[in-house]
Design goal:
The complex is a heterodimer of chains A (114) and B (114). Chain A has 114 residues and is an all-beta fold. Chain A has no helices and 11 strands. Chain A has strands spanning 4-7, 10-13, 19-25, 31-38, 42-49, 56-57, 65-68, 73-78, 87-95, 102-105, 109-113. In chain A, the strands form 2 sheets. In chain A, strands 2, 4, 5, 6, 9, 10 and 11 form a 7-stranded mixed sheet that branches. In chain B, 0% of the residues lie in helices and 62% in strands. Chain B is globular, with a radius of gyration of 14 Å. In chain B, strands 2, 4, 5, 9, 10 and 11 form a 6-stranded mixed sheet that branches. Chain B is mainly beta and 114 residues long. The chains are: A mainly beta (114), B mainly beta (114). Chain A binds chain B through residues 31, 33, 35, 40-45, 48, 50, 56, 58-59, 90, 92, 94, 96, 98-99, 101, 103, 105-108, and chain B through 1, 6, 31-32, 34, 42-44, 46, 49, 51, 89, 91, 93, 95, 98-107.
């Protein structure tokens, strides 16, 4: 069964804090993505990767780092968290297979920076 | 970069009415197209994916039309019911060279009144 697992599901941190969001997929997909979802902005792409060790910059990368350690694991790092990074974060994985192209999402991580 | 315009941002219909959501994209390297439904507090549920240059796909209570010539994707709920109330997102997979991004529209909040 397709799976994208995010952890933690909820996180509260203080301004200036260090946060790591984790994502693991067991779909054998090559692509993985991190999005943030905010009211009025939809889902915005932060970073993505097409394989272990690869990193591509998304549309809203400022203040975020990411690392793809393995095919399965993609991490989002906030090294100096700010209140503007309070958001709902989604991880996704995908593979391009023509009509069998797949995209799966995790259940989201709600991050609050106080 | 790629822009995906989704309209309307809000839509209110009565039970049994039809509801149409339209997305327009710009990048000619757009190959795969998706519609997602997000209920309050939940993740993203895939409704339909389409690929062909001109394609009509029918799901349970809805129809998706892709028109690559006009770079337009639409979702038509044929007889809406209160359970359809949710936020709907279109997403476009853009592939350039050996990398690809998944870009979302801003979403449409659909309210179906009994």
């Amino acid at each position: 069964e397709a799976a994208v697992t995010q952890s933690p599901r909820n996180k509260v941190t203080v301004t200036g804090g260090n946060v790591t969001l984790s994502c693991r997929q067991t779909n054998s997909h090559n692509y993985m993505y991190w999005y943030r979802q905010d009211t009025g902005h939809g889902l915005r792409l932060i970073h993505y990767s097409y394989g272990a060790g690869n990193l591509q910059i998304g549309d809203v990368p400022d203040g975020y780092k990411a690392t793809r350690t393995t095919q399965e694991d993609f991490f989002l790092l906030l090294e100096l968290a700010s209140p503007s990074q309070t958001s709902l974060y989604f991880c996704a994985s995908s593979v391009d297979r023509g009509r069998n192209t797949e995209v799966f999402f995790g259940k989201g991580t709600r991050l609050t920076v106080v | 970069g790629e822009q995906v315009e989704q309209r309307p941002p809000h839509l209110s219909v009565r039970e049994g009415d039809s509801a149409v959501i339209i997305c327009t994209y710009t990048d000619p390297n757009s190959y795969y197209f998706f519609w997602y439904k997000q209920e309050p507090g939940a993740g993203l549920q895939l409704l339909m994916k389409v690929f062909s240059s001109t394609e009509i796909n029918e799901g349970q209570g809805f129809t998706v039309l892709l028109n690559k010539k006009d770079k337009q994707l639409s979702l038509n709920l044929t007889a809406a019911h209160p359970g359809d109330s949710a936020v709907y997102f279109c997403a476009v997979r853009v592939i350039t060279g050996n990398t690809g991004k998944l870009i979302f529209g801003l979403g449409t909040t659909l309210q179906v009144q009994p």
